[in-house]
């Protein structure tokens, strides 16, 4: 696809891609006034009207006389060649049909409808003749928005008054109504404002990154630095360089709850807040963001992985913060890895990528070692802080009664910190109260009726929850298998149970739990984090959500309840994940002016991963992980693709799996092997039986083409679903 402008005159055939699952571009006649290539259009499809994009020349096989005309061109900047090419490349890479890619790129409300303007209210100089408390509230709202216009609805909601009060103020002349563009541009970010006084190390890294941005060419850099070393400060300077060139920048964060702290830092650095794109923003903000990004009227976007598919006009920099985070892999719908696709998009847009992490993924580490990515290290924490001292607590030597998880040694350490007026964090990566509910009479384990998974007790919700499908059920009073009464007992710890133990051990302490499922909304979670950071909790109990870059200045002790959790798994990345998680969580301790310490409870203090965690010899750890995977020809030294077949019954899925495994010639042709079919580790989810195949190919093999050729001859029986997961991260 070239950047050359192409125009289709009214009545000439052109190809239109829609988000409908048709698998191909359809031919239409260009509408009245013609259409540019890339134009967003509304087109008839059967009895319906659908949104599409003029994708290119007509395919031509359909008789011209029968072609229908595009209805109209929509009010949006045409999709640029760069984004069209990017969508096509991601489609090829992930073996996803193009319409599904277009759906990702058009997740914006009202694209096909809605007026371009709306009524906004502004404050006038005249006070209303009669002032009431409600009217005062309305007028006060404007102070908080710097005089910007607000819709009547927004105004009434912000003031907490009825719409009648607002109307009354308009009639009284205290508010003025004006037509305004529906989507307002974002306030300008000023890259020339002064940033932090960087240390020598930081300044050097910032200069290298800024020079990369100024080159106007593609490049990816791993920015590795311990938590608190100033990675954010450093990449803010790269963003400044990008904005100064008039190009756009995108920052991806793994967790919505992290955005508010980052937005505040952007505002401090550049004088205004950037655009936001994630599931926590309102529909009208989403629409504003999408359109303004396309018009170049949003300089910086902070977002979740799907922000990669925004219609940037000139994307000069993508920062992927906490690049190792597993949430960057989309596990439903289009199965893509946002970190890898960020690299692809930047390469196509002529932009830079910064992958920031204290504990990079092995893939990124290996790419840096191979010279594919540049690497910058920030080795010291900012200021007088040192890294926390790390020690193991050998659980074999501790006197720990059943049903308790805080060892006496950890208990003493926490008590000492509380006495000093500091905070302690107890980390356990398990949501809920107890992972298992068992009948003491017959041994029955309570399982989900639709999944091959145990139900997890959540006392906070007073229900059992399936962590696979989300189904919930009341706690049964009697055993579903043998009918015994009062014999169902929780087994094993979850954060809620740990909270119970903490309250018993430290009755006077204020205990706060941070677990994603305890909060109805991202905002509630944000608020809880702010409360903790403000010092209104003594003991914090958290799942992996606490590992992700929150700043708790008064936190000086981290206790890892069970470092062995996850070590035993057969998952390819089990060791890597435990290493990253425990190092990250430990990094929460001692960020301000107080030294921190991390105590790691384990029954295997001599396990190589635990030893690497404690010694902090990261390079040695990665080298040994890398060597192991190299020996097995596993990623990043080989390639994998998962194939998941799911169906209401097991047999048809297995049958197709067996046929696929037998007809593996296209895979053998590239030196790839197929393993399976085998029941997936979670053999049933939401009532669907799941069968897996795993394709393993040499590094550099043309895997996607071979897989497409391999799957093509097989028709899917009714009700059977097949999905391909290129570079799988999870194997459930
Ligand atoms: P990281 O992203 O590596 O965790 P941050 O950039 O968040 O590190 O820095 C940690 C803390 O130290 C932040 O509060 C940050 O504002 C502060 N900090 C880092 N470098 C500097 C600097 N050069 N001047 C002032 N404050 C700094
Ligand atoms: Zn379930």
What does this structure look like?
It is a single chain. This protein is α/β, with parallel strands linked by helices. It has 5 domains: 7-106, GIY-YIG endonuclease; 117-181, Arc Repressor Mutant, subunit A (Orthogonal Bundle); 200-259 and 272-285 and 300-378, 3-Layer(aba) Sandwich (Rossmann fold); 389-435 and 492-626, 3-Layer(aba) Sandwich (Rossmann fold); 638-726, Ribosomal protein S10 (Alpha-Beta Plaits, 2-Layer Sandwich), CATH 3.30.70.600. The chain has a 7-stranded parallel β-sheet with strand order 12-13-11-14-15-10-16, with helices on both faces. A 6-stranded parallel β-sheet has the order 17-27-26-18-25-24, with helices on both faces. Helix 4 (152-159) packs across helix 5 (163-171) and helix 6 (200-215) runs parallel beside helix 7. The model has no long low-confidence stretch (mean pLDDT 89). It binds adenosine-5'-diphosphate and zinc ion. The site of zinc ion (ZN) has 8 residues, from loops. Zinc ion (ZN) binds next to loops.
Per-chain topology:
Layout: E1 7-8, E2 13-18, E3 26-29, E4 35-36, E5 40-45, E6 48-57, E7 72-73, H1 81-94, H2 98-105, E8 117-123, H3 133-144, H4 152-159, H5 163-171, E9 175-181, H6 200-215, E10 219-225, H7 231-244, E11 248-252, H8 259-270, E12 275-277, H9 283-295, E13 300-303, E14 315-321, H10 338-349, E15 352-357, H11 362-369, E16 374-378, E17 389-394, H12 408-419, E18 423-427, E19 436-439, E20 455-458, E21 463-466, E22 472-474, E23 488-491, H13 495-505, E24 511-514, H14 522-533, E25 539-542, E26 555-560, H15 574-586, E27 597-602, H16 608-615, H17 618-632, E28 638-647, H18 650-662, H19 665-668, E29 673-685, E30 688-698, H20 703-711, E31 721-726
Parallel strand pairs: 10-15, 10-16, 11-13, 11-14, 12-13, 14-15, 17-27, 18-25, 18-26, 24-25, 26-27
Antiparallel strand pairs: 1-4, 2-3, 2-6, 5-6, 5-7, 8-9, 19-23, 20-21, 21-22, 28-30, 28-31, 29-30
The chain binds adenosine-5'-diphosphate and zinc ion.
